[in-house]
Amino acid sequence: MNLFEKEAFVTKAAEEFENQSPEAVLKLAVETFSSLTLACSFGAEDVVLVDMLQKINPNVDIFYLDTNVHFPETYDTRDRLEQHYGTKFVQVLPKLTLEEQAEKFGDELWKNDANQCCNIRKVDPLTDILKNYDAWITGIRRDQAPTRANAKKVEYDVKFGLIKFNPLAGWTSEDVWNYIRENDVIYNPLHDRNYPSIGCTHCTRQVAEGEDPRAGRWANIEKTECGLHK
């Protein structure tokens, strides 16, 4: 598709599929794009999409950004999902190891410049992997954050120049957990310990009762997104 065709597809699909189920949106993605991938962080939303996608087309690539500083529980969730579905997730690593990053930018860059750290360990690797695809699938929901409130189920990702599918955009957290329970989906046990949103170990903390679900991400600094979604 050229840019005009992509924009026309997005405009039509976003309207037609606004009230459709996540499975319907995933089927549209699978049937329209042979070069398609799912970005998985092993959070609640993403394991739901993994389960749905395995039932629709288990051959679609699923990748994860391995920052080298995920929680042990996150890596364990990856391993259990791979074993359960008999699949292998694509590991995407930063160009710099943690040691090389420290040598170049100083120790604990995540404290001194969280944005730069996210760029090195997440945004740049995502940019590299997405060059191999025409479309990608994400687990973002509109009610997760004000920055995501206007997300459409099908949209054109200007930042990466490809079609972006957000099948769960219209779902609530309750919808996600209902699906997990009803389908016995494997999930990250940190969710049971007051970690509703899970990122890297250095930049994620438990959320207290009454706090915003994303309050545990980049706490005490003016940052709410890692830069993957704009």
From TrEMBL:
Binds 1 [4Fe-4S] cluster per subunit. The keyword Metal-binding applies. Its EC number is 1.8.4.10. Gene3D superfamilies: HUPs (3.40.50.620). CDD domains: PAPS_reductase. The active site is at 226 (nucleophile). Its main location: cytoplasm. It is an enzyme of class 1 (oxidoreductase). Pathway: Sulfur metabolism; hydrogen sulfide biosynthesis; sulfite from sulfate. [4Fe-4S] cluster binds at residues 117-118, 200, 203. It catalyses: [thioredoxin]-disulfide + sulfite + AMP + 2 H(+) = adenosine 5'-phosphosulfate + [thioredoxin]-dithiol. Keywords: Cytoplasm, Iron, Iron-sulfur, Metal-binding, Oxidoreductase. It is found in: Cytoplasm. Its cofactor is [4Fe-4S] cluster. Pfam families: PAPS_reduct. The keyword ATP-binding does not apply. One of its GO terms (molecular function) is phosphoadenylyl-sulfate reductase (thioredoxin) activity. Residues 36-205 form the Phosphoadenosine phosphosulphate reductase domain. Belongs to the PAPS reductase family. CysH subfamily. PANTHER family: PHOSPHOADENOSINE PHOSPHOSULFATE REDUCTASE (PTHR46509:SF1). This is Adenosine 5'-phosphosulfate reductase. It comes from Paenibacillus planticolens.
